[in-house]
Amino acid sequence: MSNLMPNATKNNGGFDIPDHSRIKFYCDDNRCIDCHGCDVACKEAHHLPVGVNRRRIVTLNEGIAGKEKSLSIACMHCSDAPCAKVCPVDCFYIRSDGIVLHNKETCIGCGYCLYACPFGAPQFPTDDVFGSRGSMDKCTFCAGGPAPTHSQKEFELYGQNRIAEGKVPACAAMCSTKALLAGSSKEVSLIIRTRAFNRGSQTAEIPYTWSKAYGDS
Ligand code: SF4
Ligand code: SF4
Fold this sequence. Notes:
Elements: E1 9-11, E2 14-16, E3 23-27, H1 37-46, E4 56-60, E5 69-73, H2 82-86, E6 92-94, E7 100-102, H3 112-116, H4 152-158, H5 170-174, E8 180-184, H6 185-198, H7 208-214
Antiparallel strand pairs: 1-2, 3-8, 4-5, 6-7
The chain binds iron/sulfur cluster (SF4) (2 copies).
């Protein structure tokens, strides 16, 4: 398994998801080993400036033997994206495959999206002397942005566009334990349920991040 997306078919720089499910991220806390392969891969792939962390690792119950859990978190490309609802200049758009993107050239850096986001995903460059935040930056699912696909402008503003090349996002490609999955909701939820079944659970628990971002679908 190469961290998914096999059922997606390339189409004009994007993906058609044949079963009409949406693109999802999922981090399996039973497998994440807190190695930071994913967040380092993200920074490297997109040449992110210091202080902008599109992906980060959160560790719960740190130092408590047997209870420590790590999760890799980024923009979850929410089904009903709260960020898009509060943006006063309407700079967000949601692709037909469910990837939530925004236009950095129309973003005014007001920070409303950060207050609305349940995952703290929106990032802002370090404040300048006048306290300006600059344009918001966040995970693009490695799908670039509204600038022409694979242009220099797209790379400078949004980073790599791996989805247009039929590749998995850099973070999921780098995850050595296959904790971090990226693909259609149907594929990803099948893997969650299969793993839970193999661990001996009768039913797969719906993780907090999944239900918060996507509902229970
Ligand atoms: S690369 Fe995989 S195992 Fe390593 S921190 Fe990220 S999600 Fe966890
Ligand atoms: S995780 Fe945050 S930034 Fe990403 S779509 Fe959801 S609300 Fe928007």
